[in-house]
Amino acid sequence: MISFENDYSEGAHEEILRRLAEVNKEGITGYGNDSYCESAKEKIRQACKCPEADIYFLVGGTQTNQTVIDSVLQSYEGVIPAETGHVASHEAGAIEASGHKVLTLPQLEGKIQPKDVADYLNQFYSDGNHEHMVFPGMVYISHPTEYGTLYTRGELAELSDICQQYHIPLYLDGARLGYGLAVEDTDVTMEDIAEYCDIFYIGGTKVGAFCGEAVVFTKENAPRHFVTLIKQHGALLAKGWFLGVQFDTLFTDDLYMKISKNAITTAARLKEILKEKGYDFYIDSPTNQIFVEMEDEKLKELEKNVRVSFWEKTDEKHTVVRFATSWATDMRKVEKLGESL
Amino acid sequence: MISFENDYSEGAHEEILRRLAEVNKEGITGYGNDSYCESAKEKIRQACKCPEADIYFLVGGTQTNQTVIDSVLQSYEGVIPAETGHVASHEAGAIEASGHKVLTLPQLEGKIQPKDVADYLNQFYSDGNHEHMVFPGMVYISHPTEYGTLYTRGELAELSDICQQYHIPLYLDGARLGYGLAVEDTDVTMEDIAEYCDIFYIGGTKVGAFCGEAVVFTKENAPRHFVTLIKQHGALLAKGWFLGVQFDTLFTDDLYMKISKNAITTAARLKEILKEKGYDFYIDSPTNQIFVEMEDEKLKELEKNVRVSFWEKTDEKHTVVRFATSWATDMRKVEKLGESL
Amino acid sequence: MISFENDYSEGAHEEILRRLAEVNKEGITGYGNDSYCESAKEKIRQACKCPEADIYFLVGGTQTNQTVIDSVLQSYEGVIPAETGHVASHEAGAIEASGHKVLTLPQLEGKIQPKDVADYLNQFYSDGNHEHMVFPGMVYISHPTEYGTLYTRGELAELSDICQQYHIPLYLDGARLGYGLAVEDTDVTMEDIAEYCDIFYIGGTKVGAFCGEAVVFTKENAPRHFVTLIKQHGALLAKGWFLGVQFDTLFTDDLYMKISKNAITTAARLKEILKEKGYDFYIDSPTNQIFVEMEDEKLKELEKNVRVSFWEKTDEKHTVVRFATSWATDMRKVEKLGESL
Amino acid sequence: MISFENDYSEGAHEEILRRLAEVNKEGITGYGNDSYCESAKEKIRQACKCPEADIYFLVGGTQTNQTVIDSVLQSYEGVIPAETGHVASHEAGAIEASGHKVLTLPQLEGKIQPKDVADYLNQFYSDGNHEHMVFPGMVYISHPTEYGTLYTRGELAELSDICQQYHIPLYLDGARLGYGLAVEDTDVTMEDIAEYCDIFYIGGTKVGAFCGEAVVFTKENAPRHFVTLIKQHGALLAKGWFLGVQFDTLFTDDLYMKISKNAITTAARLKEILKEKGYDFYIDSPTNQIFVEMEDEKLKELEKNVRVSFWEKTDEKHTVVRFATSWATDMRKVEKLGESL
């Protein structure tokens, strides 16, 4: 069985394994107050060219979204994502469980359109009844999106402008950030993200780490007593250094970007193969997630040899599935798939 | 500097490191639906002699308490701990943030007294106004307690009886469970815990793992859709197998108990030394946490060479500090402390 | 100025005023444990032909929705309304503030379609990822809807069937229930509502009372300790009898239905007049709310003499406004409007 | 049966009844945006000599406490009351249900001691672990307390000083405020309360109104979008004017104080009688609640003719009961009690 099921089925980059073994018995102070976390933060600040960034390490994506969104929003505020955004659809109501409405906008290839955001905000404040409604308190985007697509630099700038105009933060979920930045055609850099977004997180779980996400507040805008808020959300790791060491490794010698490129290279070859074999792409994704629409019969055949993710039914006879590559995908596995198709 | 600061400053047992490296590139399915988790669960069931136990792996202690307590309680119910219980004092309000009152009882050496629990429950239902009050919905104990002390088998049986009488579960926080079970004098076994408690968790973070706690529902009493509830609390690890492998290792060849013993042996020697040197124990703890009351001046002196945890002030000139050993404590470090005192 | 602004701008029916004055100094026990509440409940049970119904009196609509929905749902569940449902749009996030997602479906004339509900539920359970999603735990309808429209008996039966199939309750928000039942053409009776709905509430605030909503659990399905839950939601009135007396009055000699009819009769005449004057109805509402779409210029003119509610903009030059009648609307006011147009 | 069960068993002062009937059919705009609310607010501002006060009307006490406390606190903060404070004991967990811990201090005659508050705050910030604890974010007092006792002007000033020093608000629950201010011996005026407290509420439910509490923010410190927050807590009354008219009446010609005095006069006579008859006062309360400790046998006897409230058991044979008078208590009822004892 050849698996392209997801991008979180391997462990950690071997350099992380090596360093964890190295510091394993050192005896390091708890809760992230250690030199490895400090070093990792400093390297991330440099990678973002954002020397004043305030950085925190959390364990997973849903946890990070819940903790950040709940901590940043006022209790009368909700968050605006695309209807396909992770916070809207696949977090089991984690945002609502912490008291906030998710105010979804339509998606286009997994993205929200700046114009839709502007219209929504404008209309909200025009509505005479808006005191009886949830205030829009944050715009949430994922980059890459849940459909593997990317915002352009222009779109980020536009979204940032709109958010500034309404005095609400722009928050970017970068669970797969490396895979977005490693695409050749993108005009978006880490630095751009730090400039346009008020808050973003750099995904570790899907890009080389056992687990871990680095939340970056770029505008001296971390919530007061954020450590207490992290603790309150059950998200403060006793061995914070376990995350610090991993991010310190990922941001040493550009490792994060180097290993991200592997996902893109293998995905590109995979797309080539799928195209040759006559598969139909459901969406044109430049990153490590490839969405293919197939007849159910053909899918059954495929699943004899290949593990992919079910995505959605498009009609009674067709299904969208996802092939995912990652930092750990071996090109030989891709070629092997080609042979087996 | 010799550190006895806490029991979570080292990483993972080397056998865990070895196995993580071994499976690192295997490509394992996500969210705990993997064979390592299954194997770990089976081994835990055997260790508890509780074949029908339902087991889940979470990342940290506060997260586990919050997720379990919120999922098990009805919304009109609160949880009863000792006033020194972790959920009452050091979780930044995680229980209240999920909507539940913490109904504290007085502590005696860190423990709640069965009689106090019985009186509380009896009085609650005698109060004509109890419909305007939070219903007691669960009894929470930590074993070892936050003061390193242990319940006896008789006390557990008594608490269990009271809980059954009022149809509420007994929940045991076993963040340091191994250290409790490894004490020679205790009459409490893992099997007893599974028998008397409706829910308990086996701490990994403080006993040999990078992170991870194994929640055990012993009476076919896991909440419906508990995976969804874990997800909603931001507590579902994408790479669930990362926890599974660690617990599978800890419960292979009795490793969990073997390494727990080291904490007790080193603590025993440490107590001997402290006693010889004339230190006063604040509480008589049989486990890996040793509480010493000192004059502030003497403490200042000590802290030049030794790192301990501040616990509390007893008066203006005296302070209680904690020395902690762990699975990873080297006896030579203890002896070195003896020399330096 | 002639006002058709809303249906809650008058106080209480004079018979209620009379009875409140009558019992004012009686000295009645608190929190709804009084004979007026008991009597009102009994009369409502008779009106519903539902002798086993469990009934509670709350103060307002949003409060009732929040308390009922939060108390009935499990924490992993959300509620399914139309996107125009009150709980989805105009309760300032009260449902989310109590931890639950609002799972909106498209609306057709303010109603959800049984087929859409069935499809949603079917698709949810077909989705392999549904453990990471909010479970649908209740269907919410308003009757009349926020657009004044009504479900048919057939639609209620169908919705009820679907809910039963998925073991989730059907909840009907009857803030304006009287106005729905008083329509001549409707085939839905109070008895039907008690039969098809698991929970519904009978609106008092908009139908003759100063305030008050009567929640009816029709299937012996009131949540355990519901009084405690009401208290916890800040919704338990000390002088519960103040609500009891009002509902007792409204359900004596069919007063509730009689005064509801006045809203329908005056609305019918109002519609006639508006039609004669060439106004365009935005939606065909048989109840006491009339939605008219107008050019903004014409609206400005109208607003010199008449107070209506802004509803929504349909384009840059057109607006939908609402005319509302009520139990207290004097027909002479309607005729006066006719003259002034 | 002569009842001294509580102070909320009568309806509204007859002048309120008269005015409600007067405006009943006027057609008044909703949600508190009406001239009666405005007028009531202005009169309250004058009564407090606090022209810049921001005032809101809510329906009941628990609702008011929940809405105010949740809206004012940050999510990492809790509220500090006496252990006997209403928010700590008899609100069914309403504060925790909105996410906040109740940080109780010991009570002395129902009051918290300024020194205890200062010590708590000082100790909190001295604790090295306070980032893992709930931050104290507000001090809550009731005046009169749940035991009928009163703070002195000096105590209020001291509490105010401490709160200012730690930058947290002092909040006074005035569910029975009138009864506190009407005591002859008190040195506390409404003006003092507005000066020393950052927020307080003036109870209507227990002092002459059907229902209603007026929340006063004295330092231009109302939470942003407080109307939205009220709505979100299910506490925004559609017919806001129903509360406005009541408070407007209560604050016209000093009615609130005049009728409050009746409770004090009748309570004074009641105490005299009880003293004569040899009853033991459990606590020395100067206001309208009188606590008497009795042998259970004697209590049984008493309850044949008199309705009082059970308060608490002091031992197996003794019980504390409460006699309450109110604005509506007829002196003849008191004398009749005297005769029957």
From TrEMBL, chains A, B, C, D:
Its cofactor is pyridoxal 5'-phosphate. GO terms for biological process: amino acid metabolic process. Keywords: Aminotransferase, Pyridoxal phosphate, Transferase. It holds the Pfam family Beta_elim_lyase. The keyword Ribosomal protein does not apply. Residues 15-292 form the Aromatic amino acid beta-eliminating lyase/threonine aldolase domain. Transmembrane segments: none annotated. Belongs to the threonine aldolase family. This is Aminotransferase class V-fold PLP-dependent enzyme. It comes from Mediterraneibacter faecis.
